[in-house]
Hints:
Blueprint: H1 12-37, H2 43-76, H3 88-119, H4 140-175, H5 208-232, E1 268-282, E2 285-291, E3 294-300, E4 310-317, E5 321-322, H6 327-331, E6 343-353, E7 356-365, E8 368-381, E9 384-394, E10 413-424
Antiparallel strand pairs: 1-2, 1-3, 1-10, 2-5, 3-4, 4-6, 6-7, 7-8, 8-9, 9-10
Amino acid sequence: MPIHNTPGRYGSVAKAFHWITALLILIEYPLGRIANDRPIDTPRDLEAKFTLFSAHKTLGLLIFAVALLRILWALMEPRPRALHPDRPIETWLAHAVHWLLYFCLVLVPLTGWAAHAATGGLAPIWWPFGQGLPLIPKSEFAQVVFAGMHGVLTSLLLIAVGLHVAGALKHWLIDRDLTLARMLPGKPLMAGLPGEAPRLPEPRIRRPAPLSAAVLVMLATLLAGAASGWREAPAPLALEEAGIGETEEIGDLEPVPLPLPQADQPPMWEVTEGEITFTVSRFGNPVTGRFARWDARITHDPAFGSEGAGHVRAQIDITSLDMGSLTGQALGFDFFDADEHPQAVFEADILSVIDGHVLRGTLLLRGVTQAVEMPLTLRIDGDEAEAGATISLDRFAFAIGRNIPDTSILGRDVRVNVKLKARRRQE
Length: 427
Ligand code: HEM
Ligand code: HEM
Protein backbone atom coordinates (compact mmCIF):
# COMPACT_ATOMS: atom_id res chain seq x y z
CA MET A 1 0.00 0.00 0.00
CA PRO A 2 1.65 3.30 -1.00
CA ILE A 3 2.41 5.68 1.82
CA HIS A 4 1.46 8.83 -0.08
CA ASN A 5 -1.85 10.02 -1.48
CA THR A 6 -2.29 9.87 -5.23
CA PRO A 7 -4.80 11.78 -7.33
CA GLY A 8 -7.05 8.71 -7.08
CA ARG A 9 -6.87 7.63 -3.48
CA TYR A 10 -5.51 8.06 0.04
CA GLY A 11 -2.10 6.67 1.04
CA SER A 12 -1.59 4.38 4.02
CA VAL A 13 -0.47 7.16 6.41
CA ALA A 14 -3.56 9.31 5.71
CA LYS A 15 -5.76 6.22 6.12
CA ALA A 16 -4.09 5.22 9.39
CA PHE A 17 -4.48 8.76 10.76
CA HIS A 18 -8.11 8.85 9.63
CA TRP A 19 -9.21 5.60 11.21
CA ILE A 20 -7.21 6.02 14.43
CA THR A 21 -8.85 9.44 14.85
CA ALA A 22 -12.31 8.07 14.04
CA LEU A 23 -11.90 5.30 16.62
CA LEU A 24 -10.60 7.68 19.31
CA ILE A 25 -13.44 10.16 18.70
CA LEU A 26 -15.95 7.35 18.89
CA ILE A 27 -14.67 6.54 22.40
CA GLU A 28 -13.93 10.11 23.51
CA TYR A 29 -17.26 11.72 22.73
CA PRO A 30 -19.43 9.31 24.77
CA LEU A 31 -16.81 9.36 27.52
CA GLY A 32 -17.24 13.16 27.81
CA ARG A 33 -21.02 12.85 27.92
CA ILE A 34 -20.98 10.01 30.46
CA ALA A 35 -18.50 11.88 32.68
CA ASN A 36 -20.57 15.06 32.43
CA ASP A 37 -23.90 13.37 33.19
CA ARG A 38 -22.57 11.19 35.97
CA PRO A 39 -24.47 12.01 39.17
CA ILE A 40 -22.58 13.10 42.23
CA ASP A 41 -24.92 11.91 44.94
CA THR A 42 -22.33 9.99 46.91
CA PRO A 43 -18.60 10.35 47.43
CA ARG A 44 -18.19 7.17 45.41
CA ASP A 45 -20.08 8.74 42.47
CA LEU A 46 -17.84 11.73 42.67
CA GLU A 47 -14.66 9.67 42.69
CA ALA A 48 -15.93 7.77 39.64
CA LYS A 49 -16.76 11.07 37.93
CA PHE A 50 -13.25 12.37 38.55
CA THR A 51 -11.75 9.17 37.14
CA LEU A 52 -13.96 9.36 34.03
CA PHE A 53 -13.00 12.99 33.53
CA SER A 54 -9.30 12.28 34.00
CA ALA A 55 -9.57 9.53 31.36
CA HIS A 56 -11.53 11.90 29.09
CA LYS A 57 -8.96 14.69 29.37
CA THR A 58 -5.98 12.41 28.88
CA LEU A 59 -7.50 10.70 25.84
CA GLY A 60 -8.58 14.09 24.51
CA LEU A 61 -5.00 15.32 24.57
CA LEU A 62 -3.87 12.19 22.77
CA ILE A 63 -6.44 13.00 20.09
CA PHE A 64 -5.09 16.55 19.97
CA ALA A 65 -1.53 15.28 19.41
CA VAL A 66 -2.69 12.85 16.71
CA ALA A 67 -4.72 15.65 15.08
CA LEU A 68 -1.70 17.98 14.91
CA LEU A 69 0.45 15.28 13.32
CA ARG A 70 -2.36 14.44 10.95
CA ILE A 71 -2.80 18.04 9.89
CA LEU A 72 0.94 18.44 9.31
CA TRP A 73 0.87 15.34 7.16
CA ALA A 74 -2.22 16.46 5.25
CA LEU A 75 -0.62 19.84 4.52
CA MET A 76 2.32 18.11 2.87
CA GLU A 77 0.19 15.70 0.88
CA PRO A 78 -1.93 16.22 -2.20
CA ARG A 79 -5.64 15.65 -1.76
CA PRO A 80 -7.24 12.98 -3.96
CA ARG A 81 -9.50 14.45 -6.59
CA ALA A 82 -13.22 14.70 -6.03
CA LEU A 83 -14.91 11.64 -7.47
CA HIS A 84 -17.83 13.64 -8.81
CA PRO A 85 -16.59 17.03 -9.99
CA ASP A 86 -19.89 17.28 -11.86
CA ARG A 87 -21.77 17.61 -8.56
CA PRO A 88 -20.47 20.94 -7.25
CA ILE A 89 -22.87 21.27 -4.30
CA GLU A 90 -22.03 17.82 -2.99
CA THR A 91 -18.31 18.41 -3.39
CA TRP A 92 -18.62 21.83 -1.76
CA LEU A 93 -20.49 20.37 1.21
CA ALA A 94 -18.04 17.48 1.59
CA HIS A 95 -15.09 19.87 1.62
CA ALA A 96 -16.76 22.30 4.05
CA VAL A 97 -17.47 19.39 6.42
CA HIS A 98 -13.85 18.18 6.14
CA TRP A 99 -12.66 21.64 7.15
CA LEU A 100 -15.09 21.67 10.09
CA LEU A 101 -13.79 18.29 11.18
CA TYR A 102 -10.21 19.51 11.05
CA PHE A 103 -11.07 22.67 13.02
CA CYS A 104 -12.97 20.64 15.61
CA LEU A 105 -10.07 18.24 16.00
CA VAL A 106 -7.95 21.18 17.15
CA LEU A 107 -10.43 23.45 18.92
CA VAL A 108 -12.46 20.87 20.84
CA PRO A 109 -9.45 19.56 22.78
CA LEU A 110 -7.96 23.05 23.13
CA THR A 111 -11.09 24.55 24.69
CA GLY A 112 -11.47 21.50 26.98
CA TRP A 113 -7.86 21.88 28.02
CA ALA A 114 -8.30 25.61 28.63
CA ALA A 115 -11.42 24.97 30.76
CA HIS A 116 -9.45 22.45 32.78
CA ALA A 117 -6.43 24.75 33.15
CA ALA A 118 -8.61 27.65 34.30
CA THR A 119 -9.70 25.86 37.46
CA GLY A 120 -6.69 23.82 38.35
CA GLY A 121 -8.94 20.85 37.80
CA LEU A 122 -10.33 18.41 40.31
CA ALA A 123 -9.80 15.57 37.86
CA PRO A 124 -6.18 15.84 36.78
CA ILE A 125 -4.84 14.94 33.35
CA TRP A 126 -2.85 11.74 33.80
CA TRP A 127 0.48 13.02 32.63
CA PRO A 128 3.62 14.53 34.16
CA PHE A 129 3.57 17.89 32.32
CA GLY A 130 1.54 19.97 34.76
CA GLN A 131 -2.11 20.97 34.66
CA GLY A 132 -2.00 24.63 33.71
CA LEU A 133 -1.73 26.33 30.34
CA PRO A 134 0.22 29.52 29.69
CA LEU A 135 -2.01 32.56 29.00
CA ILE A 136 -5.08 30.92 30.52
CA PRO A 137 -6.10 32.85 33.64
CA LYS A 138 -7.04 30.82 36.65
CA SER A 139 -10.56 32.00 37.20
CA GLU A 140 -14.08 30.65 37.35
CA PHE A 141 -15.10 33.04 34.63
CA ALA A 142 -12.50 31.69 32.19
CA GLN A 143 -13.56 28.18 33.18
CA VAL A 144 -17.24 28.67 32.34
CA VAL A 145 -16.49 30.48 29.08
CA PHE A 146 -14.10 27.76 27.84
CA ALA A 147 -16.38 24.97 29.08
CA GLY A 148 -19.26 26.63 27.21
CA MET A 149 -17.19 26.74 24.03
CA HIS A 150 -16.11 23.13 24.54
CA GLY A 151 -19.70 21.96 25.00
CA VAL A 152 -21.04 23.76 21.91
CA LEU A 153 -18.06 22.70 19.78
CA THR A 154 -18.59 19.05 20.73
CA SER A 155 -22.16 19.40 19.39
CA LEU A 156 -20.80 20.88 16.17
CA LEU A 157 -18.33 17.99 15.97
CA LEU A 158 -21.21 15.56 16.40
CA ILE A 159 -23.21 17.22 13.61
CA ALA A 160 -20.17 17.35 11.31
CA VAL A 161 -19.34 13.67 11.92
CA GLY A 162 -23.01 12.82 11.35
CA LEU A 163 -23.07 14.63 7.97
CA HIS A 164 -19.68 13.13 7.08
CA VAL A 165 -20.71 9.54 7.85
CA ALA A 166 -24.07 10.06 6.11
CA GLY A 167 -22.16 11.22 3.02
CA ALA A 168 -19.85 8.21 3.14
CA LEU A 169 -22.85 5.87 3.47
CA LYS A 170 -24.63 7.57 0.58
CA HIS A 171 -21.61 7.02 -1.66
CA TRP A 172 -21.35 3.42 -0.57
CA LEU A 173 -25.03 2.41 -0.63
CA ILE A 174 -26.67 4.72 -3.17
CA ASP A 175 -23.95 5.91 -5.56
CA ARG A 176 -22.07 2.62 -5.13
CA ASP A 177 -18.82 4.40 -5.95
CA LEU A 178 -15.35 4.09 -4.47
CA THR A 179 -15.45 7.04 -2.05
CA LEU A 180 -15.39 4.79 1.00
CA ALA A 181 -13.19 2.14 -0.58
CA ARG A 182 -10.40 4.62 -1.25
CA MET A 183 -10.29 5.51 2.44
CA LEU A 184 -10.40 1.87 3.59
CA PRO A 185 -7.27 -0.23 4.11
CA GLY A 186 -6.18 -2.14 1.02
CA LYS A 187 -6.22 -1.25 -2.63
CA PRO A 188 -9.55 -0.26 -4.15
CA LEU A 189 -10.49 -1.43 -7.61
CA MET A 190 -9.05 1.38 -9.67
CA ALA A 191 -11.54 1.06 -12.49
CA GLY A 192 -14.08 3.35 -10.89
CA LEU A 193 -11.59 6.09 -10.04
CA PRO A 194 -11.16 8.99 -12.34
CA GLY A 195 -7.83 8.53 -14.19
CA GLU A 196 -5.19 7.65 -11.61
CA ALA A 197 -1.88 8.94 -12.92
CA PRO A 198 -2.45 11.45 -15.65
CA ARG A 199 -4.74 13.73 -13.66
CA LEU A 200 -3.30 16.18 -11.22
CA PRO A 201 -4.20 15.84 -7.54
CA GLU A 202 -6.61 18.37 -6.16
CA PRO A 203 -4.92 21.33 -4.46
CA ARG A 204 -5.82 21.42 -0.77
CA ILE A 205 -7.48 24.81 -1.05
CA ARG A 206 -8.84 24.78 -4.55
CA ARG A 207 -11.96 26.70 -3.87
CA PRO A 208 -11.77 28.92 -0.82
CA ALA A 209 -15.57 29.02 -0.42
CA PRO A 210 -15.96 25.77 1.61
CA LEU A 211 -13.06 26.87 3.83
CA SER A 212 -14.60 30.33 4.36
CA ALA A 213 -17.97 28.77 5.17
CA ALA A 214 -16.32 26.43 7.71
CA VAL A 215 -14.45 29.36 9.29
CA LEU A 216 -17.70 31.32 9.65
CA VAL A 217 -19.52 28.37 11.21
CA MET A 218 -16.58 27.86 13.55
CA LEU A 219 -16.52 31.51 14.66
CA ALA A 220 -20.27 31.58 15.22
CA THR A 221 -20.03 28.37 17.26
CA LEU A 222 -17.19 29.73 19.38
CA LEU A 223 -19.16 32.90 20.09
CA ALA A 224 -22.34 30.97 20.90
CA GLY A 225 -20.32 28.68 23.18
CA ALA A 226 -18.69 31.57 25.03
CA ALA A 227 -22.07 33.28 25.44
CA SER A 228 -23.76 30.11 26.70
CA GLY A 229 -20.94 29.52 29.18
CA TRP A 230 -21.22 33.08 30.35
CA ARG A 231 -25.01 32.85 30.76
CA GLU A 232 -24.86 29.59 32.63
CA ALA A 233 -22.09 30.77 34.92
CA PRO A 234 -23.18 29.94 38.43
CA ALA A 235 -23.57 32.93 40.68
CA PRO A 236 -20.13 33.25 42.30
CA LEU A 237 -19.90 29.77 43.72
CA ALA A 238 -21.61 30.89 46.75
CA LEU A 239 -20.33 30.09 50.14
CA GLU A 240 -23.68 31.39 51.40
CA GLU A 241 -25.38 28.60 49.45
CA ALA A 242 -23.49 26.11 51.49
CA GLY A 243 -24.58 27.91 54.63
CA ILE A 244 -21.24 29.52 55.09
CA GLY A 245 -20.73 33.16 55.89
CA GLU A 246 -18.86 35.61 53.73
CA THR A 247 -15.15 35.74 54.19
CA GLU A 248 -13.30 38.96 54.22
CA GLU A 249 -10.62 39.14 51.57
CA ILE A 250 -8.09 41.66 52.71
CA GLY A 251 -5.38 40.87 50.23
CA ASP A 252 -1.90 39.51 50.67
CA LEU A 253 -0.06 41.28 53.44
CA GLU A 254 3.52 41.79 52.53
CA PRO A 255 5.44 39.69 55.06
CA VAL A 256 7.58 42.06 57.08
CA PRO A 257 10.72 40.53 58.56
CA LEU A 258 11.01 40.99 62.27
CA PRO A 259 13.54 43.63 63.27
CA LEU A 260 16.84 42.19 64.40
CA PRO A 261 16.95 41.86 68.17
CA GLN A 262 18.41 44.82 70.01
CA ALA A 263 20.68 44.38 72.97
CA ASP A 264 17.84 45.20 75.33
CA GLN A 265 15.33 43.03 73.56
CA PRO A 266 14.28 39.72 75.01
CA PRO A 267 16.27 36.77 73.73
CA MET A 268 15.02 35.14 70.62
CA TRP A 269 14.54 31.49 70.10
CA GLU A 270 15.93 29.68 67.16
CA VAL A 271 13.92 26.77 65.80
CA THR A 272 16.12 23.69 65.58
CA GLU A 273 13.57 21.24 64.31
CA GLY A 274 9.86 21.18 63.74
CA GLU A 275 6.93 20.11 61.70
CA ILE A 276 3.76 21.74 60.37
CA THR A 277 1.18 19.28 59.14
CA PHE A 278 -2.55 19.28 58.56
CA THR A 279 -5.13 16.58 58.22
CA VAL A 280 -8.45 16.73 56.42
CA SER A 281 -11.03 14.10 55.64
CA ARG A 282 -11.35 13.19 51.96
CA PHE A 283 -14.09 10.72 51.04
CA GLY A 284 -14.20 9.82 54.72
CA ASN A 285 -10.48 9.01 54.93
CA PRO A 286 -7.96 11.30 56.57
CA VAL A 287 -5.27 12.72 54.30
CA THR A 288 -2.28 14.61 55.59
CA GLY A 289 -0.20 17.38 54.10
CA ARG A 290 3.12 18.67 55.30
CA PHE A 291 4.93 21.91 54.63
CA ALA A 292 8.65 21.35 54.16
CA ARG A 293 9.76 25.01 54.27
CA TRP A 294 8.77 27.46 56.93
CA ASP A 295 10.42 29.79 59.31
CA ALA A 296 9.40 30.91 62.79
CA ARG A 297 10.80 33.88 64.71
CA ILE A 298 10.04 33.63 68.36
CA THR A 299 10.62 36.12 71.13
CA HIS A 300 9.93 35.19 74.68
CA ASP A 301 10.45 37.69 77.41
CA PRO A 302 12.31 36.28 80.41
CA ALA A 303 10.97 39.12 82.49
CA PHE A 304 7.79 37.09 82.70
CA GLY A 305 9.67 33.99 83.70
CA SER A 306 9.33 30.67 81.96
CA GLU A 307 5.57 31.15 82.03
CA GLY A 308 5.92 34.55 80.45
CA ALA A 309 4.61 36.08 77.28
CA GLY A 310 6.20 36.49 73.91
CA HIS A 311 5.53 36.74 70.25
CA VAL A 312 5.76 34.41 67.30
CA ARG A 313 5.75 35.06 63.58
CA ALA A 314 5.84 32.11 61.25
CA GLN A 315 6.05 32.28 57.47
CA ILE A 316 5.09 29.15 55.62
CA ASP A 317 6.09 28.48 52.04
CA ILE A 318 2.85 27.05 50.64
CA THR A 319 4.62 25.76 47.52
CA SER A 320 6.65 23.40 49.70
CA LEU A 321 3.52 21.38 50.42
CA ASP A 322 3.80 17.63 50.18
CA MET A 323 0.48 15.79 50.01
CA GLY A 324 1.64 12.85 47.95
CA SER A 325 -0.32 12.39 44.74
CA LEU A 326 -2.72 15.17 45.76
CA THR A 327 -0.03 17.86 45.97
CA GLY A 328 -0.59 19.40 42.53
CA GLN A 329 -4.33 19.51 43.01
CA ALA A 330 -4.05 20.96 46.52
CA LEU A 331 -1.79 23.77 45.28
CA GLY A 332 -4.25 24.63 42.49
CA PHE A 333 -6.63 27.53 42.19
CA ASP A 334 -9.51 25.75 43.94
CA PHE A 335 -7.51 25.00 47.04
CA PHE A 336 -4.35 26.79 48.25
CA ASP A 337 -3.96 28.75 44.99
CA ALA A 338 -0.21 28.75 45.51
CA ASP A 339 0.48 30.78 42.36
CA GLU A 340 -1.41 33.75 43.78
CA HIS A 341 -0.75 33.14 47.45
CA PRO A 342 2.58 31.38 47.84
CA GLN A 343 2.95 32.25 51.50
CA ALA A 344 0.94 31.93 54.69
CA VAL A 345 1.79 34.08 57.67
CA PHE A 346 0.91 33.29 61.23
CA GLU A 347 1.54 36.02 63.75
CA ALA A 348 0.53 35.71 67.38
CA ASP A 349 1.26 36.69 70.93
CA ILE A 350 2.21 33.98 73.35
CA LEU A 351 -0.01 34.57 76.34
CA SER A 352 0.07 33.00 79.76
CA VAL A 353 -3.31 31.79 80.87
CA ILE A 354 -4.34 30.11 84.04
CA ASP A 355 -3.76 26.58 82.77
CA GLY A 356 -0.87 27.11 80.39
CA HIS A 357 -0.32 29.19 77.28
CA VAL A 358 -2.27 30.24 74.25
CA LEU A 359 -1.28 31.71 70.94
CA ARG A 360 -3.60 34.52 70.00
CA GLY A 361 -3.19 36.28 66.71
CA THR A 362 -3.94 36.07 63.01
CA LEU A 363 -3.43 33.66 60.19
CA LEU A 364 -3.07 34.94 56.65
CA LEU A 365 -3.83 32.12 54.26
CA ARG A 366 -4.89 32.27 50.61
CA GLY A 367 -5.22 36.05 50.88
CA VAL A 368 -7.66 35.88 53.78
CA THR A 369 -6.74 36.90 57.30
CA GLN A 370 -8.59 35.34 60.19
CA ALA A 371 -8.22 35.68 63.92
CA VAL A 372 -7.03 32.45 65.49
CA GLU A 373 -6.40 31.27 68.98
CA MET A 374 -4.81 27.99 69.88
CA PRO A 375 -3.65 26.35 73.07
CA LEU A 376 0.08 25.94 73.25
CA THR A 377 2.02 23.30 75.09
CA LEU A 378 5.34 24.79 76.08
CA ARG A 379 8.15 23.22 77.97
CA ILE A 380 11.29 25.20 78.63
CA ASP A 381 14.34 23.46 79.92
CA GLY A 382 17.24 25.88 80.30
CA ASP A 383 18.10 27.05 76.80
CA GLU A 384 15.98 24.41 75.09
CA ALA A 385 12.25 24.66 74.50
CA GLU A 386 9.67 22.35 73.06
CA ALA A 387 6.30 23.61 71.85
CA GLY A 388 3.26 22.09 70.27
CA ALA A 389 -0.08 23.44 69.12
CA THR A 390 -3.12 22.03 67.40
CA ILE A 391 -5.99 23.94 65.92
CA SER A 392 -9.04 23.14 63.86
CA LEU A 393 -9.46 25.57 60.98
CA ASP A 394 -12.58 25.96 58.89
CA ARG A 395 -11.43 25.65 55.27
CA PHE A 396 -14.43 27.69 54.08
CA ALA A 397 -13.24 30.63 56.14
CA PHE A 398 -10.23 30.75 53.80
CA ALA A 399 -12.25 29.99 50.64
CA ILE A 400 -10.39 26.71 50.21
CA GLY A 401 -12.20 24.13 48.08
CA ARG A 402 -15.39 26.17 47.95
CA ASN A 403 -16.41 24.29 44.81
CA ILE A 404 -16.86 21.33 47.12
CA PRO A 405 -19.41 22.40 49.71
CA ASP A 406 -20.22 18.74 50.42
CA THR A 407 -18.22 18.01 53.54
CA SER A 408 -18.59 14.25 53.14
CA ILE A 409 -16.37 14.65 50.11
CA LEU A 410 -13.90 17.07 51.63
CA GLY A 411 -14.14 17.74 55.33
CA ARG A 412 -14.71 21.28 56.52
CA ASP A 413 -12.45 21.04 59.56
CA VAL A 414 -8.77 21.00 58.84
CA ARG A 415 -6.68 19.97 61.79
CA VAL A 416 -3.37 21.78 61.86
CA ASN A 417 -0.56 20.42 63.96
CA VAL A 418 2.60 22.30 64.84
CA LYS A 419 5.51 20.83 66.75
CA LEU A 420 8.84 22.45 67.22
CA LYS A 421 12.01 22.52 69.24
CA ALA A 422 13.89 25.75 69.76
CA ARG A 423 17.16 26.87 71.30
CA ARG A 424 17.70 30.19 73.05
CA ARG A 425 19.88 32.39 70.86
CA GLN A 426 23.08 33.41 72.57
CA GLU A 427 23.68 37.06 71.68
C1 HEM B 1 -11.56 15.57 20.62
C2 HEM B 1 -11.49 15.56 21.92
C3 HEM B 1 -12.66 15.78 22.84
C4 HEM B 1 -13.98 15.51 22.68
C5 HEM B 1 -14.67 14.88 21.48
C6 HEM B 1 -14.66 15.92 23.88
C7 HEM B 1 -16.01 15.78 24.13
C8 HEM B 1 -16.65 16.18 25.26
C9 HEM B 1 -18.06 16.03 25.51
C10 HEM B 1 -19.05 15.38 24.56
C11 HEM B 1 -18.32 16.57 26.71
C12 HEM B 1 -19.68 16.66 27.40
C13 HEM B 1 -20.32 17.97 27.03
C14 HEM B 1 -21.74 18.05 27.54
O1 HEM B 1 -22.35 17.01 27.83
O2 HEM B 1 -22.22 19.19 27.60
C15 HEM B 1 -17.08 17.07 27.25
C16 HEM B 1 -16.95 17.74 28.47
C17 HEM B 1 -15.74 18.15 28.98
N1 HEM B 1 -14.49 17.93 28.43
FE1 HEM B 1 -14.12 17.19 26.61
N2 HEM B 1 -13.74 16.44 24.77
C18 HEM B 1 -12.50 16.36 24.16
C19 HEM B 1 -11.29 16.76 24.69
C20 HEM B 1 -11.13 17.27 25.96
C21 HEM B 1 -9.86 17.64 26.55
C22 HEM B 1 -8.51 17.49 25.87
C23 HEM B 1 -10.13 18.13 27.80
C24 HEM B 1 -9.20 18.67 28.85
C25 HEM B 1 -7.90 18.49 28.92
C26 HEM B 1 -11.56 18.08 27.99
C27 HEM B 1 -12.21 18.52 29.10
C28 HEM B 1 -13.57 18.50 29.27
C29 HEM B 1 -14.23 19.11 30.39
C30 HEM B 1 -13.56 19.85 31.56
C31 HEM B 1 -15.59 18.90 30.20
C32 HEM B 1 -16.72 19.37 31.11
C33 HEM B 1 -17.12 20.72 30.61
C34 HEM B 1 -18.15 21.36 31.54
O3 HEM B 1 -17.80 21.64 32.68
O4 HEM B 1 -19.27 21.57 31.06
N3 HEM B 1 -12.14 17.54 26.86
N4 HEM B 1 -16.08 16.83 26.34
C1 HEM C 1 -17.20 5.74 10.84
C2 HEM C 1 -16.96 6.97 10.59
C3 HEM C 1 -16.29 7.55 9.38
C4 HEM C 1 -16.38 7.20 8.05
C5 HEM C 1 -17.19 6.06 7.44
C6 HEM C 1 -15.55 8.10 7.32
C7 HEM C 1 -15.32 8.08 5.96
C8 HEM C 1 -14.51 8.92 5.25
C9 HEM C 1 -14.25 8.84 3.84
C10 HEM C 1 -14.84 7.82 2.92
C11 HEM C 1 -13.41 9.84 3.50
C12 HEM C 1 -12.87 10.15 2.13
C13 HEM C 1 -13.70 11.21 1.48
C14 HEM C 1 -13.24 11.49 0.07
O1 HEM C 1 -12.50 10.72 -0.50
O2 HEM C 1 -13.65 12.55 -0.44
C15 HEM C 1 -13.13 10.57 4.69
C16 HEM C 1 -12.31 11.69 4.77
C17 HEM C 1 -12.15 12.43 5.90
N1 HEM C 1 -12.61 12.10 7.16
FE1 HEM C 1 -13.79 10.55 7.66
N2 HEM C 1 -14.99 8.99 8.19
C18 HEM C 1 -15.43 8.68 9.45
C19 HEM C 1 -15.12 9.33 10.60
C20 HEM C 1 -14.39 10.48 10.67
C21 HEM C 1 -14.13 11.23 11.86
C22 HEM C 1 -14.63 10.85 13.26
C23 HEM C 1 -13.38 12.29 11.51
C24 HEM C 1 -12.84 13.40 12.38
C25 HEM C 1 -13.34 13.84 13.45
C26 HEM C 1 -13.17 12.23 10.08
C27 HEM C 1 -12.45 13.17 9.38
C28 HEM C 1 -12.22 13.11 8.02
C29 HEM C 1 -11.50 14.12 7.28
C30 HEM C 1 -10.92 15.41 7.85
C31 HEM C 1 -11.45 13.69 5.95
C32 HEM C 1 -10.81 14.43 4.78
C33 HEM C 1 -9.44 13.95 4.56
C34 HEM C 1 -8.73 14.89 3.58
O3 HEM C 1 -9.00 14.79 2.39
O4 HEM C 1 -7.95 15.70 4.07
N3 HEM C 1 -13.78 11.12 9.60
N4 HEM C 1 -13.80 10.00 5.76
